[in-house]
Amino acid sequence: MNATTRSAQRAPTRRRGALVWLALLPFGLAILLFLLLPTLSLVWGSFHLRDGSFSPANYTFLLSPDQIRPFQNSVLLSASTMLVGGICGLVIGQALLSSGSLLVRELGVTFSSVAANFAGVPLAFAFIATLGVAGLVTRFLAGLGIDLYGAGFTLYSMVGLATVYAYFQLPLMVLLILPALQAMRREWREAAENLGAGRWYYLRRVAIPILLPSVIASMLLLFANAFGAYATAYALTTGFLAIVPIEISNVISGDVNFDPGQGDVLAIGLAFIMAICVVGQVWLQRRTSRWMQR
Amino acid sequence: MARLELHGISKRFGDQVAVAGFDLSVEDGELVTFLGPSGCGKTTTLRITAGFETPDTGSVVVDGSEVTGLPPNRRGMGMVFQGYALFPNMTARDNVEFGLAVRRRPPAERRRRVDELLGLFHLEHVAGHYPHQMSGGQQQRVALARAIAVEPSVLLLDEPLSAVDAKVREELRTEIRRMQGQLGITTILVTHDQAEALSISDRVVVMNSGVIEEVGTPARIYAEPRSAFTAGFIGAMNELPVRVASRREGLVERAGRRFAAPGATELPDGAAALLLVRPESLEPIEAAAAASEERPVLRGRVDVQTFLGATMRLFLGGVVWGAAAEGDHEIEQLAVDVPSSAAGRWPVGTELSVAIPVGSSRVIAARTAAEAAAVTRRPGSART
């Protein structure tokens, strides 16, 4: 092959390479504008006090008992809705597959897709209309002699908020876990049975170890999903419940508490926890997808 | 090691008959293959034997004890699945050990048995590998080792070689036969690959549309197929329409010539029949000698040559009976195998005469009324 032929061949390869970079440009811009720059701005802001001076003092504020509480509440709320949504979603996902009916499965997936995206203000009002003090379900139950609010339940509390979050967490889990459940091969169960294993032995040694990384990965996403949710919580509690997203809103929009530096520190804490969840999810998902190769 | 009996097994899925009236006894230490096209019921029969399907009627008996109602985990059978079905979260060693762990065998015994099996299947170097880190052939070896680790009474192999490439398939085929012979384990193998069935089985069960077409040794099934389906399904076969001329004398007739053919005594006089001749049985003869040839002769033009290694398969078109064209009894296509070294004598376009040696053909009843009619009207064909 002579030099002219080689350079003639290299030219289209170079052109293709340039086209690939051009196609990636919008994505790169989006990452820069909506992820990198805001993150840098957060970091920069977190080292500046209200008077504009440079100081790491905001980080000591993050460790103060007052600011630990929103994180504790957020972790509690996210963990509880992650567990409830995760376990119920797993059971419902398996039930949809076990039904053996394509129609039931499709209906389940469609409902889950809608419900998982039904959040924010409309969801808060839907719950106020049903489980609020004068909600339809509350009044119906009262008619049956069950006094929800008399028994200590209130929608405008952590328990109430967790109930509302479960509404989108559960279907989200169904959507996230269904592919992993579908990838479980009937032959694994049959092979285990053939080798003498009972149902529980198969679950303990084969099914659960295979599914566990996917279940944990999906639940990490549920955790992150709940941890970052703002609109539903704000619409329901009008900002009095101390969770991280509401606390951020309080320090950057309030007149009395206005302190963008503290908001930046809270946001960095929130982003840090979410990043751990996402990295963990990606790692576990990769591990599972390697297993699923034949 | 055990004797396996399947009595009157039938199974339907909705309106579809999967298996009907299946009866078979597999002797202790025997390797029997269920051979047939997709949907013939072979895998269903295997799954019924393993306990993964319940038969509508019939029973499965192992060493005189009925196991039809027992769940798979209490039948003591080993099974190798089509797609290996190795547990992806376990290494090769853990997979092989699984059945022993279920049985709570002592750790030292487990280790010894697993080492022995990994050695038997040349898997020592991948003992710590996960399934996704192994080749198809290695995975299949692990699946085999796992199935026999628990010393099952019967070994069931569901198309075990269909997912591996040709070279590995041949190696594994030999390995399965060696292992089965060494351990003397009663084995049923399901396959749609005739070469696989013929090469490793003690007996072959040819299945079609849920029923057994015939059962026999590979040599008998190949040389003397008793049904048109078997003849067409196993190996390449020329099917030449003829008519029974004399049942008493065992003669058939075609194009005015009568000749002896095994099987003719089993059919009524005048019956439409098919003369079955393997391509390798046909003997090329010189055109000049064809006229004086005592044996039945066919003549045609070489249309296509296919290289098969040691032999070359010639496909003849415009084939007629006898040394010269006689009437309109033309045969669409005839396959003839000749040594590859001699194939140069008959390039595409040349005329070739072949004789049917005495005893190399067999006559069976024509399959359908339509085919019976075709005997007087039209062509035969070669199934390859």
List keywords for this structure.
heterodimer, A: 294 residues, mainly alpha, 12 helices, B: 384 residues, alpha+beta, Rossmann fold, OB fold (Dihydrolipoamide Acetyltransferase, E2P), 6-stranded antiparallel sheet, 10 helices, 26% helix
Structure description:
- The complex is a heterodimer of chains A (294) and B (384).
- Chain A is mainly alpha-helical.
- Chain A has a single domain, classed as MetI-like fold.
- Chain A is 79% helix and 0% strand.
- Chain A has twelve helices and no strands.
- In chain A, α1 crosses α12 and α7 crosses α9.
- Chain A starts with a helix and ends with a helix.
- Chain B is of the alpha+beta class and 384 residues long.
- Chain B folds into two domains: 220 residues, P-loop containing nucleotide triphosphate hydrolases (Rossmann fold), CATH 3.40.50.300; 148 residues, OB fold (Dihydrolipoamide Acetyltransferase, E2P) (Beta Barrel).
- Chain B has ten helices and 21 strands.
- Chain B has a six-stranded mixed beta sheet, sandwiched between helices.
- In chain B, β11 and β12 form a beta hairpin.
- In chain B, α3 packs across α4.
- Chain B is elongated, with a radius of gyration of 25 Å.
- About 3% of the residues of chain B have low confidence.
- The chains are: A mainly alpha (294), B alpha+beta (384).
Please outline what is shown here.
Chain A is mostly helical. Chain A is about 80% helix and about 0% strand.
